[in-house]
Amino acid sequence: MNKEISDFIKNHIEMLVSQTKAYQPFIKTAFPAMNMADACMNLIAANAFSVFLSQYAMRMLSPTESDYMEFGTLIAQYVNKINEIFPK
User: Fold this and answer.
1) Whole-structure pTM over 0.70, yes or no?
2) DSSP code of 63?
3) Is the pLDDT of residue 31 over 90?
4) Measured over all CA atoms, what is the biggest interatomic distance in the chain, rounded to whole angstroms?
5) Distance between CA 46 and CA 13 in Å, rounded?
6) What distance in Å separates the CA atoms of residue 78 and residue 64, rounded to the nearest whole number?
7) Which run of H or of E encompasses 28?
């Protein structure tokens, strides 16, 4: 993944993770039966994926298979942080 895109995505995810408590009312309403940590991680991953694709589109590029894999690896690094915020 392009370093500029990777850095942008990392910063975006960090911002989303730092604001997870703000998502609680929405998550409790939208996903009442779902584990809070899982629901929050899904919300962050979906938002970050949208930004990931937008960053490529703005550069008129297409992500490669390895870019997608790197994105998945990057997102996976935040699962423990979210689990610490919302212990099961």
Assistant:
1) yes
2) -
3) no
4) 42
5) 11
6) 22
7) helix 20-30
